Amino acid sequence: MTDVRGARSLLRGWGRTAPSAAAVAVPTNAAELTKAVGAAPARGAVPRGLGRAYGDAAQNAGGLVVETVGVSGLLGFDERTGEARLAAGTSFDEIMRTFVPKGWFVPVTPGTRFVTVGGAIAADIHGKNHHADGTLGQHVRSMELALVDGTTRTLTADGTPDEFWATCGGVGLTGTILEATIALQPIETSRVAVDTDRLTDFDDLLTRLRDGRNRHRYSVAWIDPMARGRHLGRSVLTQGDFAPRAALAPGDDPLAFHPRTTLTVPHAPSGLINRASVRAFNELWFRKAPARRRDELQSISTFFHPLDLASSWNRIYGRRGFLQWQCLVPFGAEDVLRQCLEALGSHGAPSFLAVLKTMGAAAPGPLSFPAPGWTLALDVPAGSLELAAVLDRLDDLVVGAGGRQYLAKDSRLRPELLPAMYPRLDEWRAVRDRLDPERRLNSDLARRLDLLG
Ligand SMILES: Cc1cc2nc3c(=O)[nH]c(=O)nc-3n(C[C@H](O)[C@H](O)[C@H](O)COP(=O)(O)OP(=O)(O)OC[C@H]3O[C@@H](n4cnc5c(N)ncnc54)[C@H](O)[C@@H]3O)c2cc1C
């Protein structure tokens, strides 16, 4: 990169709903990255990783977007502690290809390997192991943050807790992460020993998910989002742990890692994704799962990243795109989960994917999403006013229960709900303003939700 102002491009989030045009700079090293952010125009700048946030967190209409993917790679590794120093644009795919064969895994992975280190920290991501291991930020030993004034800071949870935790979950609005040191987790094998249960009752699912937390490091349930009435909660629960070497057959390479992307999804023709076709698919998906299976050895990609098998699967909902509605509600508010599923099932929006997980203790970040309770994530096609009204109503229920929406997924929340969902918003704003007093960092998400205040 030589021109830090960048060429103008149309950018979208993963849900493809609200494209906006910005100048896009593509630096190729940390110095250029720092300089690019410092060149923020009046409309502001925001960093962007691999664009896997579903909504508009990594967009900045009329301003500057600084892509970090050109600033990637391993900068150092301590074999004793498993701490890896990684440039901000390094993808989790690259990390796994380098480290799984050496016996190390990321402490937290989202449902796709195609996120960057910077993007993952900026969302303070959680995985299927949140109840056991917390968020990614809790495994970040230090990071280098470039401020818009061109200076850089080293942030640690102990030395600079306010700035560190405002950046974890700070959706790119405190500065640009240039690199981070992350503590990887040792693994004996690259296989996960998975228990699968096909369930037909919502209460049974909740009980098993809650009980399983003490027995399994990773757990998640796929719920048929179109099932309702007596079928509500029809689901497939998978819970697992990395398998020990002794579980593998002699001769198996214990740390083999060869994930593949084999399918390409075109834009679905309009009409293909409708209630009947999706209902039939969900039925098939449910029936395909074993009723009860124990200790099945699955690869990392099968267990953690099944969607990565198809590149551009986000085009399946057609040209209007889709949104993911992901809420958190505290334990005790199970009835809200039920009401959400009932409302969405009755509305009949064609949806393949609803995922339910439990969450453990909250991380210290004021904008970090997880807290003790349940998180339900649901994909729905965009564009229906009727559905928008249903989701608005569900947001009210979630807020009423003391819950929240996940900013990395959001594309439609009413801004007035934000302070109730994130009661420490003002605390975050105060730290953010110290790091960027002229408010030169900005994004479509920040403007839509009035994040900066
Ligand atoms: C299929 C799928 C499954 C997912 N599963 C999960 C899951 O299980 N758990 C979970 O928590 N999330 C999940 N996500 C969401 C995803 O992990 C986050 O949106 C993550 O932020 C995406 O990283 P990215 O590199 O694509 O960042 P982008 O989408 O490009 O950007 C996301 C945010 O990070 C900021 N950012 C990017 N780079 C930097 C940087 N260097 N410095 C500062 N800020 C930066 C951007 O400004 C933006 O606010 C999933 C997403 C997909 C598509």
User: What is the fold-level CATH name, i.e. the topology of the domain at 191-245 and 267-414?
Assistant: Vanillyl-alcohol Oxidase, Chain A, domain 3
Counted by DSSP, the helix tally is 13
Number of strands: 21
Any low-confidence stretches, pLDDT <50, length ≥5? none
Q: On the 0-100 scale, what is the average pLDDT?
A: 94
Sheet bearing the most strands, described? Answer: 8 strands, antiparallel
Class per helix and strand makeup = alpha+beta
Helix content: 25-40%
Estimate the global geometry from the Cα principal axes: globular
Alpha carbon gap, first and last residue: 34 Å
- Our estimate of the beta-strand percent is 15-25%
Ligands, deduplicated? flavin-adenine dinucleotide
What does the radius of gyration come to? 21 Å
Specify the CATH architecture of the domain at 191-245 and 267-414.
Answer: 3-Layer(aba) Sandwich
Q: Identify the CATH class of the domain at 191-245 and 267-414.
A: Alpha Beta
Give the strand order of the largest sheet, numbering strands 1, 2, ... along the chain.
16-12-14-13-19-20-18-21
